[in-house]
Amino acid sequence: MKHFTLSQLFHGIALLALTFALVRAEGCGTAFTRIGALSFSPDGKRLAVVKLNWRDANVSLKGYAADILRTLSIVDVEKAIPTEVVDRAFVAGNQGPAFAILRQCPDSLAFSADGKRLFFLDFEATKIRVCDLSSKTTNTFFEFGPQAGNLQFALSPDRAVVAQEDWGNGVVLLGADDAKQIAKAPNITIFSPFRSGISLSSDNHWLAIREQDKVNLYEVEAQLLATGHLACTGGFAFAPGTEQLAVANGSNITLSNLVTKNERNLAFGQEINNVRFVGDGRVIVATEQELILLDVTTGDVAGRLKHEQWVTAIASSPDAQTVAIGDNRGNVVLWNVKTGRSSRFRAPGRSGYPWTLPAGLLVVAVSYYYYAWKRRRA
Fold it and tell me: Tens of pLDDT along 286-325?
């Protein structure tokens, strides 16, 4: 029986390690990142940012994500720099279908009315967590049932009510201070693991829920019975102080007045991937090439900002002076719509390297050292 020397054994291990390092293994594919959520504090001085990092599985016919990292940080808006990390969660290895990392709804992040607490989903999207930003302590605000999935929530414009929904169950309205249930809609059953969202109108009278390519409207005082739906492929938003709803569908935006039932369509030459109100009289429209500030009364363009990345999150400051934009490159842009100036920064959080690359280099270094040492002794 042939015996291998220690030097040959080291060289064999080094070759194997280099093979894994140079040929991408499962779970060690291309790195991806995106901004998942943005939310301004009530005074507009701070911005909460959720950033997601992950890798693809690098295996044919497998839409899996690996090594998923979610980082929740606070940003100083005036200086445009991150100041602290509130929560960081990491799950190593392949984690099922890639769409699982998109469970965190863009609206599932919000400051409390006094700005001292921050509501967010936990990494598994089974609990609403609340962080006391003064004491740096985080507790569970609300925990969903064991069969829940695709959970999300939204705070009302006055930040007094939390509306939460989960896929396959229903909608619950909770007091933001005590988490006591205000209303429940057992007649609403949601089966939408993709393209979902939830939002409350300014007086908490209307509730909008997105399922796939439509937005359903419900009246809270009428036990949340459905009243209609609008086609939607690119986001929706209520005006912060009026009963208006903006819904993006293809290259059009439908502006609906829920009181008068009037609707207006605004056509664009590009696909719209997101829309948000900036105050009550303007909307910010995100296309694949730019951001457009639009006057909803006249339809006139009030401002433009070039941004050729896919916009994944938008938030407007309470004074309607600053718009925050997050994209699929992990960048956050702060755009002062009054002056037209903008600043850009990268949110905290990054993907790690596949373990095979440092391991391979280490084994090669040890093997070479051992080989050189043995030759000197010979």
Answer: 988 889 998 988 888 889 998 878 888 999 999 999 999 9
Side-chain-facing half-sphere of 187: CA atoms under 13 Å = 9
CB contact set of 132 (below 8 Å; sequence gap of 6+): 116, 117, 138, 139
Contact 75, 332 (CB under 8 A): yes
CA–CA dist 316, 39 (Å, integer)? 8
pLDDT per residue as tens digits for the range 339-366: 999 999 999 887 554 444 555 566 666 6
Name the CA dihedral angle for 167, 199, 164, 101, rounded to a multiple of 10 degrees: 50
d(CA 326, CA 207): 25
**Strand ranges inside 244-369, DSSP E:** 244-249, 252-257, 263-267, 272-278, 282-287, 290-295, 301-306, 311-316, 322-327, 331-336, 342-346
Q: Output the pLDDT for position 1.
A: 47
**In sequence order, which residues have a C-beta less than 8 Å from that of residue 273 and are 6 or more positions away?**
234, 235, 248, 286, 287, 288, 310, 311
With H, G, I as helix, E, B as strand and everything else as coil, classify residue 87.
strand
pLDDT at residue 326 is higher than 90: yes
And the tokens for 267? Answer: 């056509």
| Three-state DSSP class for residue 144 | coil
**CA-CA distance, 58 to 30, in Å (whole number)?**
8
CA 254 – CA 325 distance, rounded (Å): 22
Distance of alpha carbon 85 from alpha carbon 67, whole angstroms: 19
Per-residue tokens: 301: 């363009």
Task: Using alpha carbons, select from 136, 86, 134 the residue that is nearest to residue 114.
Answer: 134
The mean pLDDT of the chain is: 80
Q: Which two tokens stand for residue 210?
A: 């997105």
